[in-house]
Amino acid sequence: MHDARPRDLRALGASFQVHGTLVEAAPHGSGHINETYAATYDQAGTPVRYIHQRINGHVFKDPARLMENVSRVLGHAATRLAGRPDASRRTLTLVPARDGRPYVVDADAAVWRTYLFIERTRTFDIVETPAQAEAAARAFGQFQSVLADLPGERLHDTIPDFHHTRKRFDAFAAAVQADSCNRAHACADLIAVALAHEADTDRLLAASAAGDVPERVTHNDTKINNVMMDVATGEALCVVDLDTTMPGLAPIDFGDMVRTATNAAAEDEPDPARVVSRPEMFEALVRGYLSAAGAFLRPTEVAWLAFAGQLLAFEQALRFLGDHLQGDVYYRIHRPGHNLERARAQLALMTSIERQRDAYEAIVRSYS
Ligand SMILES: Nc1ncnc2c1ncn2[C@@H]1O[C@H](COP(=O)(O)OP(=O)(O)O)[C@@H](O)[C@H]1O
Ligand SMILES: [Mg+2]
Prior knowledge:
Blueprint: H1 9-14, E1 21-27, E2 35-43, E3 46-54, H2 63-81, E4 104-105, E5 111-116, E6 121-122, H3 130-147, H4 165-178, H5 188-196, H6 200-209, E7 216-218, E8 227-230, E9 236-239, E10 246-248, H7 250-261, H8 279-293, H9 299-302, H10 305-325, H11 338-355, H12 357-367
Antiparallel strand pairs: 1-2, 2-3, 3-5, 4-5, 6-8, 7-10, 8-9
Bound molecules: adenosine-5'-diphosphate and magnesium ion.
C-alpha cells in the first residue's frame, strides 16, 4: 500500500506548527494502512517527538472530510479530558498546519497530519494476556463513551457501508457467481459454509432498523495494536487510528475486538484446527468493555455482544474469500492461496464462537 519513495520530511514538517529543527525522522509502528513517521525536533535544547502521517488515499477517498471527523472527535475528547492527570497522553492531539488547517496537502496531492508523539507507551500486535485484552476493551469503551455526546452533525462516512454485513455478503455472492479467476471449484467447501450462514448477515441490521441498536460514534478498527499502553503501568491510555471513526453500531466495535483478541492463532493460521476463540479472553473483553461502556449502552445493545464476534469473523471471511475469488486485488498476499487460508481461519473462528454461544451469553449476563 505504501509507495516507497523517500519523503522530504523536513519540508513537510515545516508546514506544520512545530517548533524547532528536525533532527531525525524514521518510519514508525506496524500499521498497514498509512505511512507513519516518528520525527524528533530540537526545541531549544530539548528533543521533542511528533508523528507525521500520510493518509492512504487509495483506502480513504476523501481525506479532507476524514480530517474534519478526526479534528471534531479529538476536539471533543480534549474538552472531556481537560484537567485529568496526564490528559495529553490519553488522547491524540493534532498539531495544526501553518495555515491553521488540520492537515497539509503535499505535491502529490496526498494528505498529511501531525500528532504529538505519545511517549512511554507501546502497542502490541498480538494479545498476550487477559489483562491486556481487558485494558484494550476498556479503552475502546471509554472512547465510545467520550463520543456518546459528540455535538453537531453526523460524522462523515469515511468508508461507506464499511460494516454493512448484507452488502458485504452480496458482494461476496457476486464474486462467487462471476468466478472471474476460476477458483470457486477448488474452495467449494468454504463457499458452502459461507452461503449457509447468509441469514446471519441481516440479524444485527434488523435490530438496528428496529431501533434496538442505535447508531453511535464508533471506532471501527478495534484491534489491539490501535491501543497505546503505558510502558510502566500497562494501562491502556489512548486509542489511535481514527480514520474509520464514524457512525456505527457499538456491538460491531466489540465484535471486532472478539475477532482479533480471542483468536488463539494468527489471522492467517494455515491449520484451522488451531483456530479457537479463547473464553478467558472473551471474558476479559466483556469485563473491560462493560466497565466503561456499561453506563451508556442499552440492554438491547448488550444483548448482541455474545454474537458480535461471530458476525465479525463471518464478515471478514466473506471479504477474504471474496478477494481470493477475485484474484487477490485488495489484501496483499505473501504466498499463493494466502487469502484462502485467511478465509478458512476466519470461518473456523466463526464456528468456534458459534459453538461457545451459551457460555459466551452467560459471561455477558454475569457482567451486565
Ligand atoms: N501519536 C502517536 N504517538 C506515538 N505512536 C503513535 C502515535 N500515533 C500512532 N502511533 C504508532 O503508529 C502506529 C501506526 O499508526 P496508525 O494510526 O494505527 O496507522 P495505520 O492506520 O497504518 O494502522 C500505531 O500502531 C502506533 O504504534
Ligand atoms: Mg493502526
